[in-house]
Structures are given as structure tokens and as C-alpha cells.
Amino acid sequence: PTVNFTYHPDLSQQSYIPYTDPRTQQTQYYNEYAEELNGGIVGPGKSSLLGLNLENDFDAKVDRQVTKDSSTVDHLKLLSVNLGSGYDLNTKILSPLSLSTFSNIGTYFNISGNASFSFYPSTYTGADSTTASLINLRQGILRPQNVSMSVTGSFSSSTTLEGDNYDSLRHLFNITTPDDERALMLGGYYPGPFVSVPFRPKWNISYGLNYNQTYTLNVIERNFNATMTLSLPLTKNWLFTTSASYDVVNKKILVPEIRVYRDLHCWEMNFSYRPPGSGTSFVDQYGVARSFSGFNLEIRVKAPQLQDVKLMRTENNYGEF
């Protein structure tokens, strides 16, 4: 358990200056320190918040055989749960109850969840009605406000030092002169011996499932998205990445994108392509939902001090969903 106390005095008399609005002839106030670095500290309102947090971890110790005669102990975090709320001694109002959980199984399976509950009923605008709690009204104990959960993980190829991919035809063939290169490309002449290409790309696949449920008045809004990213370094200097997201509720594919990276020694190239119907959407003047699509090509210096030295080409189109 963790207990904390936060006190905020009312400093409006020191910082807020009255003035008369020439349009309404009503007295208004403005903070003369609003544009300062910590101008928000001297705002109005008094607060005396007493906070309470309760955290509990569920761990496990797993014996793992290292060699034939020795073993080690791995610490595995099975579940972490955190509860938190607060009570304002000045207004006599309880803060929302927050709940967060987390669990992971290596890199393959990570689960996290968050939820927020109010001790008070809602008004017609969706805010809390703090005149009486749910317990006093005999309407229960908690009112859900937001619930979310996510599942993420990744899979990758086994790590090995053997089988680095070749990056150029010069590594495959015995090309030492321009004549050899010309003969290979134009005449089909094969100047070198047979070469077995050790093609073992270090691939990586990551996925994510995100669910969110928001309670607004008498309406429950749900969002459920599934994402997946594939990273495939075909050679030592070429990296291909593709990603996409799927809206399970609306049954739509969101933000598919293909990215290509090339190491150019002192330079580097980044290329991204978005097919029609992807990217950030908007509604045109005719009420039609459209989205940005196109490509972006960038070649820049790898040195961090010279990141502004670059060549860019961008082409955006507007596709219809």
C-alpha cells in the first residue's frame, strides 16, 4: 500500500486580475502568470487530496537447467494488479477508482488491462453528480467509466551467426573487371564458380489486439482493433516491413503500409507506400469518406549531426473507402 497527500491552496487572490468585458459589461478575471513556465500552479481552487494505492505482484520462480550439472532460477512475473483512488478533504468527494493489471509470458504473450470506475451517478451531460454517492442512493457501489484491454506479442527467427545474406551480385560471381560485368548482364556469360547462397533472413512478426469500451450517458462505445507487423531483412542492407490494422467492429482494414529501408553506407534510404483507402481519413465537401494514399521517398545522411541533409520525394493521392 502507498498513501500520499497533495495540498493545493487557492492563490487566485494573488494572480487573477479583474477586468470588465466591453461586450457584455461583466467582470472577468485573467491570470497574469498564465504565460509563465509554472503559471498553472497559481490557479484558483483549493484542494486537499488524500490518495491511496494498493499494488500486488504475483511472481514465480522456475528452475532452468543450464548445463548437465548446473541450473539457475528464472523469476517470472505472472500478474501485477494496482488499485488507486483518493478523497478530497475539502470538497468531500471521492476520486474515481482506477484499476490496472499486467501479465506477460516472455515476448510471445503480454496482457494489460485498465479500468476506471466512479462512486457517483452521472448527470445528463455524462459528468459525475457528486451530491450523493451510489451507495447513498442504493444504486450499487461503482459505475464503470472506461474499460480497456490489450494483448501484444512477437515472434522472431532463431538467432544465429551463420548464413548472413549476400547483398550484391559481386559477392556471388567472380566479377573483377567491367568486361566481366558486361558479359554477365548482356551476354549471359557466367564467369565464376557455382555459389550456394545461404538465405536465412532474420524475420520478426509482432501482433496486437486492443479493445476499449467507454460508457457515455446511456451509450456504450466499443473499439476493437487487431494489428500485425512483419519485418523481413532479405539481405544485410535491405529491410522490408509491412503493417496493417483491422477494425473488428466496423469490419474495415486500417492503415496498411509497406516500408523499405536500404543501408547506403554513409547514407540511408527510407521508402513507404500507402495503398488507396489507407492512412488518415477525412470527409470531403460532399460527405464522402476519403483517405490519404501515396508514397514517401527519403534519402539522408546517417550521421546524427547531418540529419537535415536529405533528399525527399512525396506523392499523395486521395482515395475513396
Keywords:
321 residues, mainly beta, 15-stranded antiparallel beta sheet, two-stranded antiparallel sheet, 3 helices, 54% strand
Strand content: over 45%
Order of helices and strands: EHEEEEEEEEHHEEEEEEEE
Q: Residue-averaged pLDDT, rounded?
A: 79
Radius of gyration: 30 Å
Principal-axis shape: extended
Oligomer: single chain
Unreliable runs: 161-167
Helicity, in percent? under 10%
Largest sheet: 15 strands, antiparallel
The total count of strands amounts to 17
| Count of helix runs | 3
Distance between the termini: 51 Å
Structural class: mainly beta
Describe this structure in words.
The protein is extended. The chain has 3 helices and 17 strands. Strand 11 and strand 12 form a beta hairpin. The longest helix has 9 residues, at 178-186. By secondary structure, the chain is mostly beta strands. The protein has helices at residues 12-15, 169-172, 178-186, and strands at 2-8, 16-20, 27-31, 47-65, 71-88, 93-94, 97-105, 109-118, 143-156, 204-216, 219-232, 238-247, 252-264, 267-274, 281-283, 289-301, 310-320. The strands form 2 sheets. The protein has a 15-stranded antiparallel beta sheet that branches. Strands 2-3 form a two-stranded antiparallel ribbon.
Note the topology.
Elements: E1 2-8, H1 12-15, E2 16-20, E3 27-31, E4 47-65, E5 71-88, E6 93-94, E7 97-105, E8 109-118, E9 143-156, H2 169-172, H3 178-186, E10 204-216, E11 219-232, E12 238-247, E13 252-264, E14 267-274, E15 281-283, E16 289-301, E17 310-320
Antiparallel strand pairs: 1-4, 2-3, 4-5, 5-6, 5-7, 7-8, 8-9, 9-10, 10-11, 11-12, 12-13, 13-14, 14-16, 15-16, 16-17
